[in-house]
Design a protein that fits this description.
alpha/beta; eight-stranded mixed sheet; 15 helices
C-alpha cells in the first residue's frame, strides 16, 4: 500500500558527548522510509550531527547517512581525550579526574593550548566533504555560532558551511580558541541560538519541526557544591536562547489573532508552525556534568540506544500528527511558571 511521504524539519540542540542521544534519534528517523527530513537548524553537537547526516544522505541516501553518523561518533569516541592532552604527560594524568575541568576555569586556552590545536577539525575533515555539501541542493542547514564581538547569533547556511563554521558552532571559549571566519571571531552557538527555532519556522516551506533536546532543568534540584553550581550556571546559560525563541513564537501567535491582516507572510508561517519534541533529560540528567566532555564508547552507546528508543516511542504515538497538529504545547512546556512547584529540602 502506498504511503504519502511525510516531511519534517529538525532542530538539534547542543550538548557535547550527550549529542549521541541525537545520533540515536536520527538513526531511528532514518529507518522510516515515509519520513522525509527537510530543513535542519542545529548548534554545537547538533551541528556535528547535522553535517554528518547531510553528508551521508548526499553520498548514499539513508544508508549513507546512518553509516556516516556512526563513523563520526565512533571517531569521537576513539579520539577520547583530545590529542593535545595525550601529548602532555602531566595533562594526561590529571585528565582522569575533574582537575582538568577546574584548570579550564583558571587558565585560558590561549595559555595551555597556545597553538590552538583542536582534534575535532581533523576528525570532521576526514569524514565530511564540505565542498560537496556546499554545492549540493539538499535540505537547508542553519548552523548557529555566536559572534564574540556582539553576542548575537550567526547562521551559516548550506552554501557557506565549512569546517570552520562547524568548529565555531562547537567552540567552548574556556577550552578552545575563538574560531575566526572572514575576520570575525565566533564562540559556541549555544550562547545565542540553541538552536534557532524562529528562523526555521519563518523560512522553511515545511510546517513541522521536531526538536531534539538534550538537557532540561530540574526545578526541584538546587545545586549546593561548587561543581554542581558551575554545571547549573552553564545549563541556565545554554537554555536561554531556546526560551527566548519560544517567547517570540508565542508572542507572534498572540498577535496573529489580533492583527492577522498586518502580519507578514513569514510571521504567519511561524504562528501556524507545528512543533514536536523528544527530550533526553531523564537520561542525561542522571549523568555527571563532566560526561559531556568525556565521550567514551560505553556512554555514547547508552545514549545512542536511548535516543533510538525514545524516538521509536515518539513515532508510535505521534506519527499521524505530523502535518496535522503540534504534539507539544511550547508555552506550557517551556514557559510555565515554576513558583507553584515545591522545592526539595536543601538543608540538613
Amino acid at each position: 500500500m502506498f504511503q504519502r511521504q511525510t516531511r519534517l524539519n529538525l532542530a538539534l540542540e547542543g550538548g557535547g558527548a550527550h549529542g549521541a542521544f541525537t545520533w540515536g534519534a536520527l538513526d531511528r528517523l532514518l529507518d522510516d522510509d515515509v519520513l522525509d527530513l527537510a530543513w535542519i537548524s542545529a548548534t554545537s553537537a547538533g551541528a556535528i550531527n547535522a553535517v554528518a547526516l547531510a553528508s551521508g544522505l548526499l553520498e548514499d541516501g539513508r544508508t549513507g547517512a546512518r553509516a556516516k553518523l556512526r563513523a563520526v561518533w565512533e571517531a569521537v569516541a576513539k579520539a577520547g581525550v583530545p590529542d593535545l592532552v595525550r601529548l602532555n604527560p602531566w595533562l594526561a594524568g590529571i585528565s582522569r579526574s575533574n582537575t582538568l575541568a577546574q584548570m579550564a576555569q583558571l587558565f585560558s586556552p590561549y595559555e595551555f593550548n597556545p597553538l590552538g590545536f583542536d582534534p575535532l577539525r581533523k576528525l570532521l575533515q576526514e569524514h565530511i566533504d564540505f565542498a560537496a555539501l556546499r554545492q549540493s541542493t539538499g535540505p537547508e542547514l542553519l548552523i548557529a555560532a555566536t559572534v564574540v564581538a556582539t553576542g548575537r547569533p550567526r547562521l551559516f547556511r548550506r552554501a557557506e558551511i565549512t569546517v570552520e563554521a562547524v568548529l565555531a558552532s562547537a567552540c567552548l571559549p574556556m577550552l578552545h580558541h575563538a574560531v575566526v571566519i572572514d575576520g570575525q571571531a565566533y564562540w559556541d552557538g549555544g550562547y545565542s541560538a540553541n538552536p534557532d527555532l524562529v528562523t526555521l519556522g519563518r523560512e522553511s516551506p515545511v510546517a513541522d519541526t521536531l526538536i531534539v533536546r538534550l538537557s532540561a532543568l530540574d526545578p526541584n534540584d538546587v545545586p549546593t557544591s561548587a561543581r554542581e553550581i558551575a554545571a547549573r550556571v552553564s545549563q541556565i546559560t545554554f537554555v536561554q536562547p531556546m526560551l527566548r525563541d519560544v517567547e517570540v513564537i508565542e508572542a507572534v501567535r498572540r498577535q496573529s489573532g489580533r492583527w492577522m491582516r498586518l502580519q507578514s507572510a513569514a510571521d504567519a508561517r511561524l504562528a501556524s508552525h507545528r512543533f514536536h519534541l523528544i527530550e533526553a533529560g531523564r537520561f542525561t540528567g542522571a549523568l555527571p556534568p563532566e560526561s559531556k566532555s568525556k565521550p567514551d564508547m560505553e556512554l555514547l552507546t547508552y545514549l545512542f540506544r536511548a535516543g533510538r528508543d525514545e524516538t521509536g516511542k515518539w513515532l508510535a504515538r505521534h506519527r499521524g500528527s505530523i502535518g496535522r497538529k503540534a504534539t507539544v504545547d511550547l508555552a506550557a512546556h517551556f514557559l510555565a511558571r515554576p513558583e507553584a512547584r515545591p522545592l526539595a529540602n536543601i538543608g540538613p
